[in-house]
TrEMBL record:
GO MF: dioxygenase activity
Record keywords: Dioxygenase, Oxidoreductase
Protein name in UniProt: Phytanoyl-CoA dioxygenase family protein
Keyword NAD: no
The species this protein was found in: Shivajiella indica
InterPro entries listed in its UniProt record: Phytyl_CoA_dOase-like (IPR008775)
Cofactor requirement: Fe(2+)
Domain of life: Bacteria
Length: 267
């Protein structure tokens, strides 16, 4: 293994577990070393450059299109990226925070916010997922230091308690309506930069967003979505969940464990 740290455990304190349980997000320092981050910045950037098909100029895109370039399931394209996505270190943190014995992959996603890229509107990820449990979590891994001007991930602490807005996909409406509901209900809006090697984890139902990239550098982020290894496929509740079923867990059966070649358990 080129990067031994990927197979080493990260000590998740009881305090961190308690914070996550209450707020449904957490930022953890020094999850990955600077050399690992620099290495994966290069490797993932190469794959994104190779696979990116977006050609529209920024001014011609809608709000979603301006938010980021996104490339999915890079673990299927590159063995080194597979080592990161299926690493025991990251999966162990996800398991500890969610309180489950093992996790499996839903999918990974590179999110590159271009210089001048727009906001990522308020949303909850699990609107898109046909998964029957709230034991879902996303690791958000910046591939560089991420100051406020670059558009780091922002969280609405404890907002998993809010049901209103869960039926909205990412877009102009979600930004306006969810922002209003969060303000009315007085949820704390957390906006902080990310240090090199700092990784955040957030649950599928906590509301979050990101600011615009006001720098002249690409904001590069790798994300990995994990779910409880025992998670089952539920009847899709919207067209996005129907699409996700056939794209990210093809062959899974409603009511049964999501056990497909695209959703391996991390041992």
């Amino acid at each position: 293994m080129k990067h031994q740290i990927l197979q080493e455990s990260y000590q998740v304190s009881n305090e961190a577990k308690g914070f996550y349980h209450e707020n449904k997000y957490i930022k953890l320092k020094d999850v990955l070393s600077p050399d690992v981050i620099h290495y994966y910045n290069s490797i993932i950037s190469e794959e994104v450059d190779k696979l990116n098909s977006v050609t529209l100029p920024m001014e011609s895109r809608d709000t979603y299109g301006k938010a980021f370039l996104q490339i999915f399931n890079l673990w299927r394209e590159n063995e080194e990226i597979k080592a990161l996505v299926l690493s025991k270190r990251l999966a162990g943190i996800a398991s500890e925070l969610m309180g489950c014995e093992k996790v499996r992959i839903y999918h990974d996603q590179a999110l590159f916010k271009e210089p001048g890229g727009g906001i990522t509107p308020w949303h909850a990820d699990q609107y898109y997922w046909p998964i029957d449990t709230d034991k879902t979590i996303t690791a958000w891994i910046p591939l560089q230091e991420t100051p406020l001007a670059m558009g780091p991930l922002e969280f609405s602490a404890k907002s998993h308690q809010l049901v209103v807005g869960r039926d909205l996909g990412i877009g102009d409406e979600s930004e306006v309506e969810i922002k209003k509901n969060l303000r009315i209900n007085n949820f704390e809006h957390v906006i902080e930069p990310f240090d090199l090697g700092e990784v955040s984890f957030h649950s599928g139902w906590v509301f979050h967003r990101a600011g615009a990239n006001q720098t002249d550098q690409m904001r590069k982020v790798m994300t990995i979505i994990y779910m409880d290894a025992n998670a089952r496929l539920k009847q899709p509740e919207n067209p996005n969940q129907e699409k996700d079923w056939h794209t990210w867990c093809p062959g899974a059966v409603i009511g049964e464990e999501i056990n497909t070649p695209l959703n391996p358990v991390i041992e």
